[in-house]
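Q: What residues go here?
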């Protein structure tokens, strides 16, 4: 099926371009147009790592960026994201091979026994790394680098990501904030408690919930809050889009549209969640039995990959 083969290639190109465009905004030299949204550096690094088997140049560019900018990456957040997505279906490879990424970010942190379990494809790419001088200095005043901007103020810790979340989500409880930014709930709660006492955030009680926000705050946070932005859970986005690419390029699928539809049906709630970020409303998947689901989603997936 020539058309299906071409579609798979188009979708993969969109997926890789999404990665390259974000690295371009972070200083990696590439011809791909720069990303327009706020970048989540840990989500990007993890997704790029697991895309290495598809695009080695992308993997090697990430290694060079990390070598120069390791200080801006939260290792604890990387570990939390790997742990959460490693617990999902087909997540064993994430946990196993993620040990190499942890070692890249923090050399000497992983013992030799864990390194033995890593797939050879990742070890071979890593072993072939040579610095090529393709990474320029970070320009912090870009809107896309708001996360790193905040880290330059609050440090590479939960505080910066709490601020980033509240700028987009506006109002939420501590537990939801912690789960959305992939930090320990106790740490997030303690930070919010201190900020509420100092007047940096506002606490509002609705029923049994304690909701935190920047609403009405006359402070640095209040100034940030005047920006018009939407919080997007980038780890969820990358994980979902990565699963879609894996489904379409699975050797088992080949030209089997029915099997592709069945696999997409399994992750349909996640696809809906990601589509909501670009205000693309998807119908109930039960309206499209069998292989009809793929044909319903075909053009919509391209739009999601290009827009999110």
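A:
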């Amino acid at each position: 099926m020539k058309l299906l083969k071409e579609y798979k290639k188009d979708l993969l190109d969109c997926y890789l371009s999404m990665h390259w465009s974000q690295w371009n905004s972070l200083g990696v030299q590439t011809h791909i147009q720069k990303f327009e949204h706020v970048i989540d550096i840990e989500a990007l690094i993890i997704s790029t790592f697991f895309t290495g088997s598809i695009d080695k140049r992308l993997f090697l560019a990430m290694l060079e960026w990390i070598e120069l900018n390791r200080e801006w990456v939260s290792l604890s957040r990387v570990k939390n994201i790997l742990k959460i997505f490693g617990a999902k279906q087909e997540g064993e490879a994430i946990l196993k091979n993620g040990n190499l990424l942890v070692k890249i970010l923090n050399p000497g942190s992983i013992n030799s026994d864990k390194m033995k379990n890593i797939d050879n494809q990742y070890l071979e790419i890593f072993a072939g790394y040579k610095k090529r001088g393709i990474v320029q200095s970070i320009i912090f005043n870009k809107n896309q680098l708001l996360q790193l901007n905040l880290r330059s103020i609050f440090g590479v810790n939960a505080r910066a990501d709490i601020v980033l979340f509240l700028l987009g989500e506006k109002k939420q409880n501590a537990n939801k904030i912690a789960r959305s930014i992939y930090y320990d709930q106790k740490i997030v709660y303690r930070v919010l408690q201190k900020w509420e006492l100092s007047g940096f955030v506002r606490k509002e009680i609705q029923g049994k919930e304690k909701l935190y926000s920047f609403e009405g705050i006359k402070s640095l946070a209040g100034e940030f809050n005047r920006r018009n932005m939407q919080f997007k859970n980038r780890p969820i986005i990358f994980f979902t889009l990565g699963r879609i690419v894996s489904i379409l390029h699975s050797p088992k699928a080949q030209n089997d549209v029915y099997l592709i539809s069945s696999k997409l049906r399994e992750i349909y709630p996640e696809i809906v969640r990601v589509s909501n970020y670009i205000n693309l409303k998807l119908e109930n998947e039960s309206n499209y039995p069998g292989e009809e689901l793929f044909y319903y989603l075909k053009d919509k997936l391209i739009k999601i990959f290009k827009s999110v």
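A: Context that may help when evaluating the design: The chain has a mean pLDDT of 90. The chain is about 60% helix and 5% strand.
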